[in-house]
Design goal:
348 residues, alpha/beta, Rossmann fold, 3 domains, 4-stranded parallel beta sheet, 14 helices, elongated, LacI/GalR-like_sensor, DNA-binding, Lambda_DNA-bd_dom_sf
Length: 348
């Protein structure tokens, strides 16, 4: 469509409300085809999708979602409940989720819990009132009320970022416990004699507690007879400044520790930078490990040894499962363990 055609279309419609029938006439297709492209573009040919989308752009058509939702009894939305909006690592998972869902015609609406089970109840109840077609949850620990509400809703649910033998519906994630147990095994292979777990175990952050449990299990297996050491704070936020504070506490309580295993890369990064300011040689005097493989991990000097988890892929795979369920297709599996990878860099 050239510029002249576009100007003629704009003059024709002006400020009047553009209908789906108008889009169909401009695209040279039926109104049913326009509706199908809007609802399930993956089920249409690429040529048809492009013609309809060009017609939508040229006519500046805005779909009346409220009317279509009433007609189809579907909202074409997926509710995503995450601990924090500001955390980049959850944003990566949301990006993967949204990328796949948008291609299938679904929009993501987000609620955040700030690591509070009580707030998760309120968020889930509020979002259910908006009638989403499915739910995506970070974590597998929920109150009975949350589980009951989602089961009664009878819509697809995918949990992520953890592992459980009893998911609400479907699960895409990894074992935080197994990841930290592997970190302890790595510490033993590298010859570290006195590893200490360091973390901020905020109320409701079940994944950090699972990581501490994995540390304890790994210590029992690989360091028999050595009393495990944990340095935890209940209310410190996940910031680099908290990592600096935790480093000071760990050094005061266990000055002979030769490796600090942090529950998060942000905390580990703050500790590593504090070591540099304090003249503590890393890893010669003190080794540091993190969790998550944040972008900062590879940019530090020395680079941060950490546990990498498939943040984007978790969202993508969860979205693919949800789309198949929403199309009444049988998913390949009820649970999908994406695993983790220990990334060795200079800090340990």
């Amino acid at each position: 469509m050239n510029d002249t055609d576009k100007r003629q279309i704009r003059r024709r419609f002006g400020t009047n409300s553009v209908t789906m029938a108008d889009v169909a006439r401009v695209a040279g297709v039926s109104a049913q085809t326009v509706s199908r492209v809007l609802r399930e573009p993956d089920g249409c040919s690429p040529q048809t999708v492009e013609r309809v989308r060009e017609a939508i752009r040229s006519t500046q058509y805005v779909q009346n979602h409220a009317a279509s939702h009433l007609a189809s009894n579907r909202s074409m939305t997926v509710a995503a409940v995450i601990p924090q909006i500001a955390a980049s690592i959850f944003a990566e998972t949301l990006q993967g989720l949204s990328n796949v869902l948008l291609q299938a015609g679904y929009q993501v609406i987000i609620g955040h819990t700030d690591y509070s089970h009580e707030r998760e109840e309120a968020v889930v109840r509020n979002l259910l009132g908006r009638r989403p077609d499915a739910f995506f949850l970070v974590g597998t620990h929920h109150t009975d009320a949350v589980r009951d509400m989602l089961v009664r809703a009878a819509i697809p649910v995918v949990e992520s970022w953890a592992w459980t033998d009893a998911p609400i519906d479907q699960l895409v994630g990894f074992s935080n416990q197994a990841a930290l147990a592997e970190a302890v095994a790595y510490a033993r292979r590298r010859g570290h004699a006195r590893p200490t777990f360091v973390g901020s175990l905020r109320a409701g952050d079940d994944r950090a507690r699972e990581r501490m449990d994995g540390y304890l299990a790994g210590m029992a297996q690989h360091y028999p007879g050595f009393a495990p050491r944990t340095v935890v704070a209940d209310e410190l936020p996940y910031t680099m400044a908290s990592g600096r504070a935790l480093l000071d506490i760990a050094r005061a309580r266990h000055p002979d520790s030769d490796l600090l295993l942090f529950s998060s890369d942000l905390l580990a990064a703050g500790a590593l930078l504090a070591c540099q300011r304090q003249g503590i040689a890393v890893p010669q005097a003190l080794a540091v490990m993190g969790f998550g493989d944040y972008e900062v991990a590879s940019e530090l000097n020395p680079g941060l040894t950490t546990i990498a988890v498939p943040t984007v892929r978790m969202g993508e795979e969860a979205a693919r499962i949800l789309v198949r369920r929403l199309r009444n297709e049988t998913p390949d599996t009820r649970t999908l363990d994406l695993g983790f990878e220990l990334v060795a860099r200079g800090s340990a």
